From TrEMBL:
PANTHER family: FLAVIN REDUCTASE, FLAVIN-DEPENDENT MONOOXYGENASE, REDUCTASE SUBUNIT HSAB
UniProt GO molecular function: FMN binding; monooxygenase activity; riboflavin reductase (NADPH) activity
Alphabetical keyword list: Monooxygenase, Oxidoreductase
Organism for this UniProt entry: Gordonia phthalatica
InterPro entries, A to Z: Flavin_Rdtase-like_dom (IPR002563), NADH-dep_flavin_reductase (IPR050268), Split_barrel_FMN-bd (IPR012349)
Domain Flavin reductase like: start-end pairs: 24-168
Parts of the chain that traverse the membrane: none
Pfam family, one: Flavin_Reduct
Record-given protein name: Monooxygenase
Signal peptide boundaries: none
UniProt family annotation: Belongs to the non-flavoprotein flavin reductase family.
């Protein structure tokens, strides 16, 4: 049996950014902090758009906003650490989402194997090298090759972002 797709709509609907944000807000996502070492100083940003891309080779991707002041500094390092946040780490997530502040103030961290900061208390971390970048509207899709990874806790559930707020899954 052959199926046919409906004829494409000639007029494309106008989708507002607020409508897209509201609809996609119903899709729960995990939250991570992407870190790197920019010379002598650690740099990081909060990111909820992290995805496994390929198992062979091991690739992951994340999507920083083009307005991010932290992403250019992360990019320059060439290596990153994706820190998967635990349910109780909502305040840490908010701390890393602000511009113009010392994001690492009071944050226990140490260098991962690739030199990027591993945030203590994270559920897991993934070390990676930046392989490619793709323009995607107001964001950049960053594809990274995984070089090392570890699980640190199974006692807490992950921090989740859903409908504009944080929660956890246990």
């Amino acid at each position: 049996m052959q199926s046919t797709l409906p004829h494409p709509v000639q007029e494309q609907a106008v989708i507002s950014s607020s409508d897209l944000r509201e609809v996609m807000g119903h899709f729960a996502t995990g939250v991570a902090i992407i870190t790197a070492n920019d010379g002598d100083e650690p740099v990081g940003l909060t990111c909820q758009s992290v995805v496994s891309v390929s198992l062979d080779p091991p690739l992951i991707a994340f999507c920083p906003a083009k307005t991010s002041s932290s992403w250019p500094r992360l990019r320059n390092s060439g290596t990153v650490c994706i820190n998967v946040l635990a349910g109780p780490q909502g305040p840490l997530c908010r701390q890393f989402s602000k511009s113009g502040t010392d994001k690492f103030a009071g944050v226990a961290h140490s260098p991962a194997g690739n030199g990027a900061p591993f945030i203590h208390e994270a559920l897991a971390h993934v070390e990676a090298t930046v392989e490619a970048e793709h323009d995607a509207g107001d964001h950049t899709i960053v594809v990274c090759r995984v070089t090392d990874l570890a699980i640190h806790s199974i006692d807490n559930g992950p921090l989740l972002f859903y409908r504009g707020g944080f929660g956890n899954f246990s």
